[in-house]
Amino acid sequence: GAGVSQSPSNKVTEKGKDVELRCDPISGHTALYWYRQRLGQGLEFLIYFQGNSAPDKSGLPSDRFSAERTGESVSTLTIQRTQQEDSAVYLCASSLQGGGNYGYTFGSGTRLTVV
Amino acid sequence: GDSVTQMEGPVTLSEEAFLTINCTYTATGYPSLFWYVQYPGEGLQLLLKATKADDKGSNKGFEATYRKETTSFHLEKGSVQVSDSAVYFCALSGATNKLIFGTGTLLAIQP
After folding, report:
1. Which of A31, A55, B58, B75 could hold A98 in an S-S bridge, CB 3.0 to 4.6 Å?
2. What does the DSSP 8-state code read for residue B38?
3. C-beta atoms of A45 and B100 within 8 A
4. Per DSSP, what are the bridge partners of residue A7?
């Protein structure tokens, strides 16, 4: 597609429930990133996929967080047993290849509220 | 590991004032450097970038020069407008291919 698409745009969930967030990257982009932005704070790196390589999961904050990507297409970020501190905007970005010589395009994000 | 430090906000200026938002970085090798902007209620947008030392990125009247000797990438604009009010993020992409962000600087321009 023309841009990075994320769904849902907003999600309200009860504490303890599982949630799944989806990201559709730009077609042909081999690199895909997930970030978390808490209210009034910067962007926190979560996970990075590059083609068929093993993902860089170094930013996932706990084992409640996991992400998958099918080939070079859709990615899902799953948060199990959600906690109130998980409330944030979750941003996805894609790039033609990893690295700074190629632009990173961000989606509009999913605003997650855990009540 | 790689990191970015930018000046804390909020920064409040009058219209037509000169703007500088400081950004310094720590990285191995030669990272690419970026400024992203987030307008109220909108997503993150690339403002400008520089991929090697002494490069100058520019867009919408904003400029930033990649200074390897001072590991800096300060954002400047000669005359700000109310429409420039936003949160500005400095970022780098280094050997790990991850985009590492600073904490963001809120800029508020008063008419």
Report:
1. A31
2. E
3. yes
4. A22
Instruction: Let me know: does B108 contact B12? Beta carbons within 8 Å.
Output: yes
Among A5, A4, A3, A11, which Cα is nearest to A88's? A11
Residues of B in contact with A45 (CB under 8 A): 98-101
From the candidates B97, B100, B106, which should be mutated to test the interface with A, based on the most A CB atoms within 10 A?
A: B97
Test B44 with A42 for CB contact under 8 angstroms: no
Mean pLDDT in order along chain A per 10 residues (115 residues): 88 98 94 92 91 91 95 93 97 83 86 97
Rounded CA gap, B106 and A40, in Å?
Answer: 9
Q: Select the residue of A41, A98, A108 nearest B97 (Cβ to Cβ).
A: A98
> Cα distance from B45 to chain A (closest Cα, Å)?
7
The overall longest dimension of chain A from CA atoms, in Å, is: 41
pLDDT in tens, B76-102: 999 999 999 999 999 999 888 888 999
Q: For residues B24 and B2, what is the distance between their CA atoms, to the nearest angstrom?
A: 11
Structure confidence at residue A66 (pLDDT): 97
Are the CB atoms for B86 and B21 separated by under 8 Å? no
Question: What is the C-alpha to C-alpha distance for residues B108 and A105, in angstroms, rounded to an integer?
Answer: 25
A106/B43 CB distance under 8 A:
yes
**Per-residue confidence (pLDDT) for residue A72, from 0 to 100:** 80
